[in-house]
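Please, why this fold?
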Amino acid sequence: MTNEQIEHITRLQQSGKGYRAIAAETGIPINSVKSWCRRHPVGAESQTACQQCGAPLCQTPGKRQRRFCSDRCRLLWWGEHPECRTGRAKYLHTCRFCGREFTNNRITASYCSRACFARARAQVASDG
């Protein structure tokens, strides 16, 4: 696709024409027009900034709002702001094997570790 064709597609898209009408007017296959229009929505972008580095972000409507420009920025920001994590619920349990108290995000947890679970299973097997 040439730059003139891209500009023509953009103008037609801004005027409210559909994919079929744009394809007919420009002579470009409809699937190429669809792909271009979906990747480059007209007037749909709002500028925001990355929370970590301040780099501009392009937001596209209908998609989840971006907060970071990259995985690196996302990981750095969450590392510096652990208090902002909502996290999961934590439940206090007592291990059925060793009796130690532990927290877990599952309400039905019974053992503090896989080792305690394995020892409990081995004890049941040897008793029976």
